[in-house]
Specification:
2 copies of one chain form a homodimer. Chain A is α/β, with parallel strands linked by helices. Chain A has 11 helices and 14 strands. In chain A, helix 1 crosses helix 10 and helix 2 (75-84) runs parallel beside helix 3 (99-113). The two termini of chain A are 27 Å apart. The mean pLDDT of chain A is 97.
Chain lengths: 328, 328
């Protein structure tokens, strides 16, 4: 029997989850839930209902797992504990500093309900976290490096859009190739924020806007840009649409370390992602973990989990025998 | 309390396990067991006893986990089931085709004993297998590629040493850079054995040996060399010692795949290793899994496991809270 999945929230991530479900024969999208008027939401999977989020109050028998596709700032801190008390759930909560309190709230709700929740799923946090953990366990004496990009940062794009005179912006985060090469060489460099990444902004300005002022406001914006070397390009709306409509991303997690009685041998472990679509890849990771969550709950587990707590075999539709015979 | 570890077999891998234990504060090497005369085995960790393998018949109360460092051809098929019936064990069994039968024998012994065994640990099988599995679960529609090297293949070096007139050999397996680049580009190439790797042999010949005959025997050797482009260099014993005494290795696992309702987005997941010492890195992976095996058994689990069955958090000496706060 298929694993029956619900999606709450139909933005970029919700759509990425939808297309990932379509690629997994053992999963079935039962319904998309929205806080908007369902009549205004058109999903792409034939026969799938769009329902008011309120309907989730009584659909426990129809869903094996609910995937929460809201934002980390205001949606998930409320939604994940709320729905963890009724469903197996997966979210992509990515506010690193608040993970401990989010975990505690979700864990209490999930344990009480006898359900499994998995938080902070995707690629960072998610696959990158896993690779940091594995590499740290294998090479206890070493140093971690994470690079992001080249890819679109939604948060930075939004920050620029809030500047007066800016109509639209797409911000790319770009790893500095020289820094990446230094890390890969095993030389264990100490790298500043500025040395690791550059930022590039493509901006559509309002007619008559003061371009020099916009450029200066971007480059000096604290937290977002002032610690980086930033390049600003002004382009037309047509160019934005033609050249910057995708949401590519990616990056690398690298750990370098030593082994040997004299610590005489160096090792480099690198995990890298090149993604044409950040939300679709994130959705694909989430759907694999939705399978795991549903299975773990069927085996009697409950409470809040992260990717660290899930044995890899739970992610696969294949049997343990098949995995041992063909993937080990 | 420390996790008390025994090592059976003190070759390259046993030594790699020894140095890895020294890098992990929560692990303690209790004894090295050997089938040789213990007086002829000198270990490098102060205060550690060297004992006859027979002593393992009565040391169950002194070891939390026994690491089996024998070979896959004849040692492990006998040793792992034997000791799985007495200890938590970890081995590095790497004869892919025989993993299912090895698993069955070890699983039966471990279940009966109420112990946990983990087989086929290291980097391939091991970390490479994990990365194949994760990448397949995240990108169900895609293609897998594994490249090995640049590194020393012990099996191929041994095969050349058996040729008449050969005193010593070191064989390097080298990935073809053009093939790697084609895979990374996402073009999904179909690659023959010859297109993926080349082989390079450094040979010390006996005095007066027929070098042309040796070179020809190497290049035409079925299974080992005939499907590859092979280069043979004749060198002196001094050059062998000076330039080829290390055991470097590494490689890459790459999966390329598509997502989207129209499968319109490409993604590349790559995991790569650059290792100065193959046996020390393998030993480091094994020691992390020895920690996991000891813990899983303390929680009441039993039976044979592989890396697919171990939740990543078990590998780390850090608490779940620390991992969530600092690695997620």
């Amino acid at each position: 029997m298929s694993i029956r999945v619900g999606i709450l929230g139909y933005g970029n991530l919700g759509k990425g989850v939808e297309s990932a479900i379509a690629q997994n024969d053992d999963m079935e999208l039962k319904a998309v839930f929205t806080r908007r008027n369902p009549e205004n939401v058109k999903v792409r999977t034939a026969g799938v209902k769009v329902l008011q989020a309120d309907e989730l109050s009584h659909m426990q028998d129809e869903l094996d797992v609910l995937i929460l596709c809201g934002g980390s700032a205001t949606d998930l801190p409320v939604q994940t504990p709320q729905y963890a008390s009724m469903y197996n759930v997966v979210d992509s909560f990515d506010t690193h500093a608040r993970i401990p309190e989010h975990f505690a709230a979700v864990d209490a709700a999930a344990k009480k309900a006898g359900k499994v929740s998995l938080i902070s799923c995707g690629w960072d946090p998610g696959m990158f976290s896993l690779n940091r953990l594995y590499a740290n366990c294998v090479l206890p004496e070493g140093k971690d490096y994470t690079f992001w990009g080249k890819g679109v940062s939604q948060g930075h794009s939004d920050a620029v859009r809030r500047i007066e005179g800016v109509k639209d912006c797409r911000q790319y985060t770009i790893p500095v190739e020289k820094a990446v090469e230094a890390v890969r060489s095993g030389s264990n460099p100490e790298l500043t924020t500025r040395e690791k990444h550059t930022r590039e902004c493509f901006v559509v300005a309002e007619e008559g806007a003061d371009l020099a002022k916009i450029e200066n406001e971007i480059k000096t914006m604290p937290n977002y840009f002032s610690d980086y070397d930033t390049t600003v390009h002004f382009i037309t709306e047509e160019e934005m649409k033609r050249d910057h409509s995708g949401l590519p991303h990616g990056g690398m997690v690298i750990r370098t370390g030593v082994t040997g009685m004299e610590k005489e041998h160096k090792h480099v472990i690198e995990y890298s992602l090149k993604l044409d679509s950040n939300p679709e890849f994130t959705g694909s990771v989430i759907v694999a973990y939705a399978r795991a969550v549903s299975r773990m709950n069927k085996e009697g587990m409950s409470g809040c989990k992260t990717v660290f707590d899930v044995a890899p075999a739970y992610l696969s539709p294949k049997s343990a025998e098949e995995l041992r015979a063909h993937m080990l």
